[in-house]
Specification:
single chain; mainly alpha; 8 helices; globular
């Protein structure tokens, strides 16, 4: 990823959006905030974790609820519904994906609940 610091290289790689360029540059610099946001909230704990990926996702209900509570403090039922819908996914989620979802529906908890499957 050392090349990711170079705008020309990013352009040749098809990375044109300035926000995407920024993320690649921060990853290349080992920015802790970016690296944390790219971590999975529902993935294997380590190489000794014997659960399947579906079990990892299913076991992430509590961390998801905790994370969602920051955005929807006064909506415990909505938090339950959104987290339950999120763990139905076949794929693990990154903190960044959840943050983008929450940003998109900031102040709109009903819309967030309706569109959690996107």
């Amino acid at each position: 990823l050392h090349c990711a610091k170079n705008d020309e290289w990013l352009k040749q790689a098809g990375i044109k959006d300035n926000r995407d360029k920024y993320v690649f540059k921060m990853i290349a610099q080992n920015d802790p905030e970016i690296l944390t946001s790219l971590s999975f909230i529902n993935y294997y704990k380590d190489e000794h974790d014997t659960r399947t990926i579906q079990e990892c996702i299913r076991d992430s209900r509590i961390p998801l609820q905790s994370y969602l509570r920051k955005q929807f403090r006064n909506n415990p039922q909505r938090i339950d519904k959104i987290s339950n819908d999120m763990i139905k996914s076949r794929f693990p989620l990154t903190i960044c994906q959840i943050d983008r979802f929450l940003l998109k529906y900031a102040g709109k908890p009903a819309m967030a609940q309706e569109n959690v499957s996107e």
